[in-house]
Amino acid sequence: MEDYLILMRLDLLTKEAQPSPEQLQIYMKQYQEWVNGILSQKKFKSGTALSTEGRVIKSNQIMTDGPFVETKESLAGFIIISADNFDDAVQIAKDCPILMGEGNSVEVRKVMGIHKQE
Amino acid sequence: MNQSDVLPHLFRTEYSKIISVLCKQYGFNQIEIAEDITSETFLVASQVWGLNGIPENPIAWLYAVAKNKAKNLIHRDSIFQKKILPTYQRDQKAFEVELDLSDENIMDSQLRMIFALSHPTIPLESQIGLSLRILCGFGIEEIARAFLSNRETISKRLFRAKEKLRENNITLDFPPPNEWEERLTSVLRTIYLLFNEGYSSQSQDRILRKDLCLEAIHLSSLLLEYKETNTSEVNALLALLCFHISRFDARLDSEGEIVLYGDQDRSLWNEDFIKKGEYFLHQANQDPKFSKYHLEANIAYWHTLPDGSEKKWETIFQLYTGLLELEPSQIILLNRAYALFRAKGREAALKEMDGLDLKSNPYYFYLLGELYLGIEPKKAKDYFREAFSFAKTEADKSAIQRKLDLI
């Protein structure tokens, strides 16, 4: 098993046409089910959502308001899973409910452990 | 509360609070931005809570996100700044905004919002739509369902209403003392219509309709929280709504068909609401006024009493007579004729029906059928058939059909 990082990028600029309470409930359930699915396979390691606000520090120490809202790809959150291989990790990431929103994306990266215990 | 119910519940209770506070702070003309911030806050909540679980203090979480979003927007969006800053130029705090989310300010903001949305220059239908959206946190889809309309129509209507708010420079300031009474009247009418929309709406969605009624009750309860708006009319209106909703579950049978008052299963009436209604009616009667809501609340109260109660139908007849003085209407005359039938019998009621001009109203013919039932069954049948031909809803049609089958 190897660790993979799943990054969830959310188009924060698209105005979701003001969701109704029922829709919100469905969204929330979809996320729960996705995470629970990974948990039940014992592949969930950790993860968190991120605030929608952020600061970006550039190389010249100039700080700007972030996240990169102008790129329409803000990082909404990430989780770390353990998967058999890259394909397995991608399969799991494909089910991420965030992908139902237009313009959203999920990125899968293998975590390269430098301090491997074994 | 079930975990998955938390978010919709908070949406109903907190949406209007957050949006009202934002509007009070940034100006009522920024209502769309306030709506966006609030909607996004809930959207983020649905995602984050789905991944991380519901936070310990979900309300504080929502407020914190809304606050940050508002702050960020001010810093980020230069157009917004240009629009906002002129208004706030004297007020250096504009940049350092801290949203005041104290209970006091939330209540104050919500009250201002109710008054603004019931502004007399906005068409009634839009007042209700806007109230559903802003005050009750209904989604566009739900409003469309409630009005038996579609998304586009409702979006357009709400958009135009907001344009109107801007054109007329409606602010969140309380109305001046000389307009106060008129505006409160307008607020009460909106709540009354909101309730009606839920109570007699033809939408099949029963839960949604009950929700609508409960929202109307919630809004009028809100008015009682303030000294200025805790008037005897508001109490009367609230009493009226409580009495009506107490019969909500008895009004429809398992097939969703209307059960008429006389045939309702009284064990399905909600005693709690009747008790509440009695309490508010008592409050209203401390300052007895000859207002529409006082009379209607009293009528509704007498309707909750068992049929054998002394003077029941006589009193209802008299109350309807009073209501006629306030707003002469054929429908009230029709209702009064029914009360007369129960109080004095068929002949007296039939005489009363003579003067009515409701020749395409199914209920008019229905009552005629009912009145002739004990005298001339053949005539009764004809009237019920006539009622059937004018009935607009399936529920009404099948209720009349059942009556016809029994003859």
UniProtKB/TrEMBL annotation, chain A:
Entry similarity comment: Belongs to the YciI family.
InterPro entries referenced in this protein's UniProt entry, alphabetically: Dimeric_a/b-barrel (IPR011008), YCII (IPR005545)
Highest taxon above the source species: Bacteria
Protein name, UniProt field: Transcription initiation protein
Taxonomic classification: Bacteria, Pseudomonadati, Spirochaetota, Spirochaetia, Leptospirales
Residues covered by the YCII-related domain: 27-110
PANTHER family: BLL7171 PROTEIN (PTHR35174:SF3), BLL7171 PROTEIN-RELATED (PTHR35174)
SUPFAM superfamilies in alphabetical order: Dimeric alpha+beta barrel
Annotated organism of origin: Leptospira mtsangambouensis
UniProtKB/TrEMBL annotation, chain B:
Annotated ranges, domain DUF6596: 183-284
Protein name from the UniProt record: Sigma-70 family RNA polymerase sigma factor
Source organism of the structure: Leptospira mtsangambouensis
